[in-house]
């Protein structure tokens, strides 16, 4: 009979995904999609958007801003039916998960349409209860941008090495949020189907984020390349990120320890208008210009937000599901109210290069240790 020590050594060589696996914590899908979310219920006082994030009661009344369509998918959209007069703001939606999720959590969104258009600023992201104790922008961009931009926002001290292995392009390596810096450490997705009209034309796709001891990993899969373990029809599958290939964005813990810079994360899905990112004249001009030489600072607002709303016919999420898994034995979740401070606040970065590094295992040390101790304990009982 093999000794406990030798069996433990064998167990330690088993891939961590097999030892720990992922357990489903939350499945927002179909008729249950709008359960366990908090609607913000206030004007956008987070990113200076020209938008009102309505309550659930308003969102479900006519014109509906949140509902399940005939295909069984969730719609979250900007009001495109109402006429807005100066100086009022336009109604839209900000959803935040009731529970938050800690290290070892994996959250995934499968969507067939993302909001886009001049002045439109959508995001699928997460943040801690207090900002900037960790924010992860899985999906975000503005106006008529062609690809997704990922980012982290943290307290000062978190950076990204140029050698980090990812398919995206690192455009800013400093994740800190001091008074002179707001864009975070940004990565531009190389996939032209990752955002905007091209995303919808390709049948949509899947975004996945893993918050692990070894770093933050973000993947995008266009519809034709969605892994089978992220199937719409099989929420009880145990995803295996080891089989997903190189991530679109990777932020290693070697230069940004997740246990130091990231508190438990609330998941957020929202659409604001103009604001600090989409409404900045230099950003707006990149895809919605040219703007007049003497354009006022509120040009984005006066050109788009006021009026009959037809500008926002494409400003909606159509989501098949959002799911959260954990690969720790006991789910690390907490319940709270809307996060305070901050918001999804990236701005376009410049420069930077994509880089490579050796692969790093992506599953938590705590999960591996728990599995190993469990095997050792079982063998000891049988001895």
UniProtKB/TrEMBL annotation:
Record keywords, A-Z: Hydrolase, Membrane, Signal, Transmembrane, Transmembrane helix
Listed Pfam families: GH16_XgeA
Location of the region described as Disordered in the Swiss-Prot/TrEMBL record: 333-353
Signal peptide: 1-19
Example GO biological process: glucan catabolic process
Gene Ontology molecular-function annotations: hydrolase activity, hydrolyzing O-glycosyl compounds
Entry's transmembrane regions: 362-382
Biased composition (Gly residues): 339-353
Annotated ranges, domain GH16: 7-286
InterPro entries cross-referenced by the UniProt entry: Beta-glucanase-like, ConA-like_dom_sf, Glycosyl_Hydrlase_16
Protein name according to UniProt: Glycoside hydrolase family 16 protein
């Amino acid at each position: 009979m093999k000794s406990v020590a030798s069996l433990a050594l064998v167990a330690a060589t088993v891939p961590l995904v097999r030892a720990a696996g992922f357990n489903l914590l939350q499945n927002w899908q179909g008729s249950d999609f709008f359960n366990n979310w908090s609607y913000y219920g206030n004007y956008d006082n987070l990113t200076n958007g020209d938008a009102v994030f309505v309550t659930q009661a308003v969102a479900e009344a006519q014109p509906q801003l949140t509902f399940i369509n005939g295909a069984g998918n969730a719609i979250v959209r900007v009001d495109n039916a109402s006429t807005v007069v100066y100086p009022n703001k336009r109604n839209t939606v900000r959803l935040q998960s009731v529970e938050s999720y800690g290290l070892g959590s994996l959250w995934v969104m499968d969507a067939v349409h993302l909001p886009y258009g001049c002045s439109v600023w959508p995001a699928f992201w997460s943040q801690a209860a207090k900002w900037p104790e960790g924010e992860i922008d899985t999906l975000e961009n503005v106006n008529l941008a062609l690809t997704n931009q990922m980012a982290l926002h943290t307290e000062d001290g978190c950076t990204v090495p140029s050698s980090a292995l990812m398919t995206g392009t690192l455009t800013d390596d400093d994740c800190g949020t001091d008074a002179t810096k707001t864009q975070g450490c940004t990565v531009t997705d190389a996939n032209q189907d990752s955002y905007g009209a091209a995303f919808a034309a390709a049948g949509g796709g899947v975004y996945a984020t893993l918050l692990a001891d070894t770093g933050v990993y973000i993947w995008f899969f266009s519809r034709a390349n969605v892994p089978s373990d992220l199937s719409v029809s099989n929420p009880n599958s145990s995803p295996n990120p080891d089989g997903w290939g190189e991530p679109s964005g990777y932020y290693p813990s070697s230069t940004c320890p997740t246990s130091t810079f990231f508190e438990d994360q609330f998941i957020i899905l929202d659409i604001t208008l103009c604001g600090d990112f989409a409404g900045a004249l230099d950003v707006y001009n990149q895809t919605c210009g040219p703007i007049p030489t003497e354009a006022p600072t509120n040009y984005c607002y006066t050109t788009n937000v006021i009026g009959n709303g037809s500008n926002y016919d494409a400003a909606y999420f159509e989501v098949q599901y959002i799911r959260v898994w954990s690969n720790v034995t006991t789910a690390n979740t907490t319940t709270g109210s809307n996060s305070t401070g901050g918001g999804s606040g990236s701005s376009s970065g410049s420069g930077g290069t994509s880089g490579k590094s050796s692969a790093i295992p992506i599953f938590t040390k705590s999960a591996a240790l728990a599995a190993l101790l469990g095997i050792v304990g079982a063998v000891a009982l049988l001895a």
